[in-house]
Structure formats: C-alpha cells, structure tokens
Amino acid sequence: MRRCVTCEATIDGAGWECRRCLFKPAIVNGVPVLAPELAHGNPIDADYDYGVLRAADEGHFWFTHRNRLIAWAIRRYFPDARSFIDVGCGTGGVLRALRSTIPSVQYAGADALLAGLALARQTVPDVPFAQVDIHHLPYDREFDLIGAFDVVEHLDDDEHALRELYRSTRPGGGLIVTVPQHPFLWSALDEFSRHRRRYSRRRLMEVVRGAGYTVERATSFMAFVLPLMIVSRLRKRDLDALDVGAEMRLPPVVNRILDAVCAVESAAIVAGMSFPAGGSLLLVARRES
After folding, report:
1. Tens digit of pLDDT for each residue in 256-266?
2. CB 73 within 8 A of CB 145
3. What mean pLDDT comes out for the span 276-285?
4. Averaged pLDDT of the chain
5. Helix, strand, coil percent content, the chain, rounded in steps of 5
6. Rounded to a whole number, what is the distance in angstroms from the first to the last CA of the chain?
7. CATH homologous superfamily of domain 2-286?
8. Bridge partner residues of 149 (DSSP)
9. Beta strand 143-149 with 83-87: parallel, antiparallel or unpaired?
10. Helix or strand holding residue 254 (H, E)
C-alpha cells in the first residue's frame, strides 16, 4: 500500500493525491515530489558530479561487481520476487543493470534529489520514480524486495531508516543492502561523500535485525582488491587534495584487469564463500511476517 506523507492515510488509485487531507504533490518531470525540502539539496549527500557518476555506473569495475552480486542475491534468495524498489537509486545504474538481467520484476526507484532522478528517468524511462525522504517513506508492505545500495552510511539515524524500509517490505519479502566496510579505511573520499560511518559486519547486522529483519547472508566483497584499497585510502586523508573524478575514471586496461579479478570473487561468493574482509559489505535479509 501507498500512504500519504502528510496524514498517513492509505492512498487508493494510480496517483498520489490523498482523499483524506487533500495533499497533492507537485510533479516535476514526471516525478512526484513527496519531500520537497530535500528535492534540490540534501545535507546527507555529497555534491556529486552526476555526469561523472553516471559514466562510472556504466563501466567502472566497482559498480559492475556490485551489480553482479545484487542480481545474484535476488535470484538466489528471492526468486519469486515480482516487485523491487531501489531506495537511493541515484542515476539509476542498478535499475538498468537489473532490468537487463532479471526482466520479470516490476522495478521502481526513489531518491531525495531531483537532479539524480532526472538522469535515472533517462536511464530507465519506463520505471516509475518518486522523490522521497528515506526517514518517511510513503509505503506500507508495498514491495517484495527493497534495495539500499551505499545509502544508509549517509544517515545519522540509520536505525530509523531501516525501520522505514522494513515497513515498506511485504511479509516474506526482503532487503538487500550494501555499505562501505571497515572504519580503518576512512579517508577523504568518505568525507567528500558525507558518510557518517563505515560499517563493521556486527554493526550492520545489529541495525538490520533491530529493524525486524532476519539476516540470510552477509559477506564482504571487494576482498581481492582490499590491499590496493588500503594503500589508496591511507594515501588520501586530505580532502583538499582529493580528485573524485580520478577515482571514477580508471585507465581502461586497469579497469578490465580489476573487473576480471572481481569476477573471480563473484564466482567464489556465488559458490558459497563468505569473505571476512573487504572494502564493502553485502547483506541479504528477510521480513518473516
């Protein structure tokens, strides 16, 4: 069910207008604006160059590896899922990748920033999007599956946000979440990205379970490239010297090599291996009732 962000009444019909309180959101480029105070500037997010980010979404080894693992997790743990929302979808890169690999699912996207959603609509134009506040989602048991990919580390109150995701999940459905891992890897890139934390596995499992989910699987990824990440992050402690564009643009040969390395890691995870350490963490959880 969808619910009104003003009075929390159930919304019937195809639109977002509330019959109880008569709330009617503005529609900007086809996107309903349900949290207008965040639409054009969000203190939890960095000032991303969306052009650079979108280009990285389409070919950078890190994004490619993460997308492979997300698609695998859906097939492995939620093969019967028919609806999926990417909360914090950015420019729509995950949705584009999933649409091409698992086309049977009905996809949706949500984000706080209209600038990212404008690009997401170009990336996957037939997917419905909404501009939302993750701390006040307009859904109640609406989706079989919810994704939050490198989102909750931006939040001061990640516990509250995860409870909102739980309420939006149908019983028997689930959550797939990725986060940056290992506090010791904190660097200027985390500061630029306005991360509130890098997670330990224990911390992520605690907040996901605290929201009501049952954890099905948790594994590190970017494990094979962790030594390179450690060297890179320890060298980049100064925010003023950070070149975010260089982080996103790798020489093609280097990118292909790292993608091949990560493909081997993906195969190991699919075969059942859970890595204890890595630059990022993937967690799969289920709402039982």
Report:
1. 999 999 999 99
2. no
3. 97
4. 92
5. 40, 20, 40
6. 16
7. Vaccinia Virus protein VP39 (3.40.50.150)
8. 178
9. parallel
10. helix 252-270
Residue type (1 letter), 255: N
- Among the listed residues 89, 81, 65, the one whose alpha carbon sits nearest the alpha carbon of residue 220: 65
Please write the tens of the pLDDT for every residue from 59-118: 899 999 999 999 999 999 999 999 999 999 999 999 999 999 999 999 999 999 999 999
CB neighbour list of residue 159: distance below 8 Å, 6 or more residues apart: 207, 210, 211
SS3 143: strand
> Environment class of residue 215 by beta-carbon count within 10 Å: exposed (0-12), middle (13-18) or buried (19+)?
middle
Contact 11, 18 (CB under 8 A): yes
The letter for the amino acid at 285 is: A
Interval 119-139: pLDDT, tens: 999 999 999 999 999 999 999
**Domain ranges, ordered by start, for the chain:** 2-286
Residue 10 clears pLDDT 70, i.e. is over it: yes
In DSSP terms, which residues pair with 239 in a beta bridge? none
Structure-block tokens of residue 252: 């093609």
Q: Which helix (H) or strand (E) holds 189?
A: helix 188-192
Which tokens is 17 given?
């207008």
Confidence of residue 242 (pLDDT cuts 50, 70, 90): low
Residue with tokens 């990824």: 221
pTM for the complete prediction?
A: 0.94
Which residues have C-beta within 8 Å of that of residue 19, sequence separation ≥ 6? 9, 11, 12
Q: Which amino acid is at 193?
A: S
Q: What is the DSSP string of 71-115?
A: HHHHHHH-TT--EEEEET-TTSHHHHHHHHH-TTSEEEEEES-HH
